[in-house]
């Protein structure tokens, strides 16, 4: 396993209190728990979250389950959030599975920031 295969989450805080979580690497059986824990921690610590998945090279079914769990948790905590998957390999599976109808998906980080109030 190379370093590029390991899932990593880097947080970036914007002026309007929106946190952008930049995710890179593979999200599979071996890394889904790290992904889940990182998202749970991010959701617990912010009022608005943009999850940038453009750096994700692979996402297995557990990763998609984590997205659904996170969506439920953001609703429970009243956290505004959005997912950016415009150019990543997971954008097509999001469409095929119908998750794009359920999850708040945006084509870019700037679009998500605008929707969550960053640009205004």
UniProtKB/TrEMBL annotation:
InterPro entries xrefs: Anti-sigma_ant, STAS_dom, STAS_dom_sf
Domain STAS span(s) in chain numbering: 18-116
Coiled coil: none
Signal sequence residues: none
A matching Pfam family: STAS
Entry-linked PROSITE patterns: STAS (PS50801)
Family affiliation: Belongs to the anti-sigma-factor antagonist family.
Protein's name in the database: Anti-sigma factor antagonist
Organism annotation: Kibdelosporangium persicum
């Amino acid at each position: 396993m190379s370093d590029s295969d390991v899932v990593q989450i880097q947080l970036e805080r914007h002026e309007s209190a929106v946190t952008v979580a930049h995710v890179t690497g593979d999200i599979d059986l071996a890394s889904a728990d790290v992904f889940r824990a990182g998202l749970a921690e991010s959701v617990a610590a912010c009022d608005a979250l943009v999850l940038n998945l453009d750096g994700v090279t692979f996402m297995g079914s557990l990763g998609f389950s984590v997205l659904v769990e996170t969506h439920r948790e953001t609703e429970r905590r009243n956290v505004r959030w959005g997912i950016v998957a415009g150019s990543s390999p997971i954008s097509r599976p999001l469409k095929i599975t119908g998750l794009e109808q359920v999850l708040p998906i945006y084509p870019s980080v700037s679009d998500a920031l605008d929707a969550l109030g960053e640009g205004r």
